Amino acid sequence: MLGFIYEWTDNQTGLKYIGRHEGNPSDGYIGSGTKFLREYNKRPEDFTREIVWSTNTSVTELVAKEEEFLSLIPDDELYHGSNRKFYNQVRNSSGYTSIDNPMKNPVVVAQMLETRKDTHKNPWQNTVEKYGLEEARRMNAKNGNPSKAGKGNFGKNKTEEHRRKIALNHRGGIPRVNLEETMKVFNEYGLKGGSEFLGIHYATFKSRVLLAKKNLDILPKES
Length: 223
Fold this sequence. Notes:
The radius of gyration is 26 Å and the shape is elongated. A 3-stranded antiparallel β-sheet has the order 2-1-3, covered by helices on one side. A two-stranded antiparallel ribbon has the order 4-5. By secondary structure, the chain is of the alpha+beta class. It has helices spanning 34-42, 59-71, 106-116, 123-131, 133-143, 160-169, 179-198, 202-215, and strands at 3-10, 16-21, 47-55, 170-171, 174-175. It is 43% helix and 12% strand.
């Protein structure tokens, strides 16, 4: 087999994804669509694949057949359409180009903004909606401005051990994150206590913890 046309189905949402591959169905290839892969990588168990066409002749024929399948998808059923039924964003075999980029289509952009306007809110908006304006103001006055978290530690005298730990993250004036040390401090003191222990902003320490959680398991082991 030279190649085939496949159709993935998201059994949770019902959305489909059509694509082509030069190879055989058992070689491990999944697909290349960004919207499709984002969801597949989160929950591959929810997806099933069907081989809808195959060929042993030429790549040209394979590409033409994919274009034929994609051409059957109505505009409004593409990913950014109003009646979304596919993860495919455009109807061509090479994906979208700078010319047909959906983000340059004012209709698509307007639909996306309409969908998102009521879902993307800042923390203050969420607090007001949950507790009411007066209670939110009271809570803000009591807890202070979150953006100033950790500033009470600046200017205070630090022990030598304290300074040593800070130095692990700042050498030669250039920030250097020691991921293992960061996680040790986090596991012992938590976010607030860890930021105070290191004498850095709460937000800075939180970002380092997130970085450590994301990358620590793939760091090369010391020999």
